[in-house]
Design goal:
It is a single chain. The protein is an alpha+beta fold. Helix content is about 50%, strand content about 10%. It has 22 helices and 19 strands. The strands form 5 sheets. It has a 7-stranded antiparallel sheet. Strands 3-15-18-19 form a 4-stranded antiparallel sheet, covered by helices on one side. The chain has a 3-stranded antiparallel sheet with strand order 1-5-4, with no helix packed on it. Helix 9 (about 435-445) crosses helix 12.
Length: about 775
């Protein structure tokens, strides 16, 4: 195959692979479809049988359009992720360049743009699929660069030939002809470079652990094109508007659960609420649930130790049943640290500190993170009011506390002009009176034989009241993602008229009913952990598993979780399919989880643990005399202890070491000479048995080369034996006539399969003697 044509195909493949990788890292199938189609069409338009590049003015207009699109993304559409915007810009520049007339400078520009796009994609994704594409891209780009060197050399030869030829002469472009040996050398060079780069990458990976990088600081998942909102975790809930779309099946969290409680079930069929954000304030104007503005001034920074140490956040009685959870956060979610509720202790090798609120037990990272974040928590299976009181007692106050006003939270700090935070009204007051909602709440609890004073802070029957309200919504309302409401009071509309909606409306309705009769209630967003991976022994939480529920304070029981959504309908919505394909899906997700936890989350603590483990294993093996390492070290130690080191011993050992060094050097020199002889005889591609036989028969040719080299005539490695012989004969026919004859014998034996009989041996000796005599007389 013509290597110039092969180079163009490799450039096309490299650009296409880079665009595919970037679109997959960005999770943008629409962009992949459009850009992939344009790139594929460019090969037919430019490189096809009747291919013709587009005029340069069209390419320039397209480049101006790409710049305009970049500016629109950054300023008009408010694209928060600069890397995505720049990636789109470089993508369109590559597409345009594929349709243009290309010089070597244009090819270099294509390769550089593709490399920049791949670097940007590596920031956006940590998926194992992207890692595989990146490895393939590196191998492909390596061969492309090597062939680019051949192409530039061929172009230089063509330009030089054309410059020296007459004006009327028709100069053809030289074809790069590569023999079998040179192809093997090209593959060897590429393989050696790839091996060196791979070893270097592994060494750098081990020596320099990964650190937390920015993700949300460079942008999040904001949909600036105004599409309908998908199911997914959010730190705020906006009710009403268009129906929801099902969320993606992309895994965002892995959880391993264990417990000391008898009868604890963790596996297929078990479901757990994974807590993210606690929302205590409802704005009827914007129809939005959010975290109250006063709570942010109560957050404290908590130092998180690495295992086996843990940071205690709540006091538990000795022997109390707890759930131990190991979380692997696979992608950053606006710094949110997901937990079970409530958290009594935390430890992490990825987080040095977290922002924690003793008021609502919300937890977040102190800085933006990306990739896998690993941490472990402990939560009581059954919490009571004493647990939440101990959280407030054990959590340190914020730095420079402000003296509280009467009725304020003791650790409260607020900005000037902000209304004082009232502990009495936390998660209890409703922004506007609603007699319909209050009447419905009392109707529900009266049917259950219960009653409550709306002015009381607590009631011993609060747990029963909350359960009655929750059961009523579960049994009398229908779960649906298609609910759309333009009402100014979407919660009231849901409870009284529609009686159908998604989990956010169920959580909001339960919180509103509880508050309307004086109870404290807040809406919580997070995930439902239900998909158990039996291969890895952990739960896989996906973006589509995002869920909302309610937490209600129940007198002596403290804050309790209540999920008013009809769980059977929710589970049907969350099902991702079963059958024979499930095993392969779980296997892939387990491999990707191992990739994230072992490679993506590799940090200083992981390196320290790995090196400490290797050192411990080596020490244990060396001290165990039953292992081969222990026996070898014991023998060496005994030999050193029993050996008498005197002057004779040192001299004897020096002689042995010197002999070994001389032997190794001689062996290396002999191998190099042998290799050089095989190259001179053109025997490197033959089997070892044939090499040995022919090397003995063709020894005369090496003798001839030695004679010529002693007189200053060296055959270049690139020159054929026959070409070298004719070059010498052209300078002096009589003197080098034996070289022609000996070379003909060489070809007859090497390629003509002639035997080296006695007659041929005598003729070869005679030619060697004549050559030596003629060269000697000349000197």
């Amino acid at each position: 195959m013509d290597l110039i044509y092969l180079f163009r195909k490799l450039v096309f493949a490299q650009v296409l692979l880079g665009i595919v990788a970037f679109c997959m890292a960005e999770q943008n199938p629409e962009m992949l479809l459009i850009a992939g189609a344009l790139v594929s069409l460019s090969w037919y338009v430019v490189e096809g049988p009747t291919g013709k590049p587009l005029p340069q003015w069209i390419i320039l207009v397209g480049a101006l359009g790409a710049v305009a699109w970049l500016l629109m993304e950054l300023w008009y559409f408010r694209q928060p992720n600069v890397i995505k915007a720049v990636g789109h810009f470089t993508m369109w520049l590559q597409v345009l360049q594929l349709y243009a007339q290309k010089t070597n400078r244009d090819y270099a520009l294509l390769l550089v743009l593709s490399l920049l796009q791949m670097v940007g994609a590596s920031v956006l994704s940590v998926s194992i699929i992207f890692g595989t594409l990146l490895a393939a891209y590196c191998v492909l780009s390596l061969f492309t660069v090597l062939l680019f060197q051949l192409k530039t050399t061929s172009d230089l030869v063509f330009q030089a030939t054309k410059a020296q030829a007459p004006d009327a002469a028709n100069v053809d472009r030289p074809k790069v002809i590569v023999g079998r040996g040179h192809r093997w050398q090209l593959r060897l060079t590429a393989g050696m470079i790839g091996l060196i780069c791979g070893i270097t990458a592994v060494v750098i990976f081990i020596i320099l652990p990964r650190t937390s990088r920015f993700d949300e600081a460079m942008g999040g998942d904001t949909d600036y094109l105004g599409r309908p909102r998908q199911v997914g975790f959010t730190r705020e809930i906006q009710l009403g508007g268009a129906p929801m779309l099902p969320g993606s099946k992309e895994p965002v969290l892995n959880i391993v659960l264990s417990s000391n409680a008898p009868g604890f079930h963790s596996g297929s069929g078990a479901v757990f609420h994974v807590r993210g954000a606690a929302l205590d304030t409802y704005n009827p104007t914007t129809k939005t649930w959010s975290r109250g503005p006063g709570l942010g001034w109560m957050d404290v920074a908590v130092q998180v130790p690495a295992l086996p140490e843990t940071k205690t956040l709540a006091e538990l009685s000795e022997g109390a049943p707890v759930i131990e959870a190991s979380f692997t956060l696979r992608t950053s979610q606006m710094r949110t640290i997901f937990t079970l509720f409530p958290v009594s202790s935390i430890a992490s090798s990825s987080l040095s500190s977290v922002i924690y609120s003793p008021m609502d037990q919300q937890m977040s990272a102190t800085s933006n993170t990306t990739g896998a974040v690993v941490y472990q928590t402990r939560s009581p299976i059954s919490a009571d009011a004493k647990v939440f009181e101990s959280i407030q007692e054990l959590t340190p106050p914020p730095a420079m506390p402000v003296g509280p006003a009467p009725g304020e939270w003791p650790y409260g700090r607020r900005r000037r002009g902000t209304p004082p935070f009232s502990l009495e009204n936390y998660a209890r007051s409703w922004p506007q009176p609603n007699a319909v909602m209050t009447r419905l709440a009392f109707q529900i609890i009266h049917e259950a034989g219960l009653d409550r004073d709306v002015n009381a802070l607590s009631d011993p029957r609060d747990a029963q009241i909350a359960k009655a309200l929750c059961d009523y919504l579960q049994n009398n309302y229908r779960y649906s993602l298609t609910n759309a409401s333009e009402s100014n009071q979407p919660i009231t509309d849901f409870l009284v008229r529609q009686k159908s909606g998604h989990c956010e409306l169920f959580a909001s309705g339960l919180a509103a009913l509880a508050r309307s009769i004086g109870m404290r209630a807040r809406v919580v967003t997070g995930y439902l952990a239900h998909d158990y991976n039996a291969i890895g022994g952990y739960y896989v939480v996906r973006d589509a598993d995002a869920h909302a529920w309610t937490e209600i304070e129940c007198a002596d029981a403290g804050w309790q979780t209540f999920d008013a959504s009809p769980l059977a309908d929710v589970y049907d919505e969350l099902q991702i399919g079963t059958g024979w394909f499930t095993w392969f899906r779980q296997l892939y997700e387990h491999v990707e989880f191992a990739w994230l936890s072992s490679f993506v989350a590799y940090d200083k603590e992981t390196r320290h643990a790995m090196l400490t483990g290797l050192q411990t294993s080596f020490t244990d093996a060396s001290q165990n005399q039953d292992t081969w390492l222990g026996m070898a070290l014991l023998w060496i130690k005994g030999t050193i202890d029993n050996w008498r080191f005197d002057m004779f011993t040192y001299s004897f050992m020096s002689v042995i070491l010197l002999s070994i060094m001389v032997g190794v050097v001689s062996l290396i020199h002999r191998m190099m000479v042998h290799r050089r002889r095989l190259v001179a005889l053109q025997l490197t591609r033959l089997p070892s048995k044939e090499r040995r036989t022919l090397s003995r028969r063709l020894r005369f040719y090496l003798i001839m080369l030695d004679i010529l080299e002693r007189h200053g005539y060296h055959r270049p490695a690139w020159q054929t034996p026959f070409g070298f012989a004719h070059q010498l004969a052209e300078s002096d026919t009589m003197r080098f006539e034996p070289v022609i004859a000996l070379t003909e014998h060489f070809y007859e034996i090497r390629f003509g399969h002639r035997e080296l009989d006695d007659t041929r041996r005598r003729i070869i000796r005679a030619h060697l003697t004549r050559l030596q005599e003629s060269l000697g007389q000349r000197r």
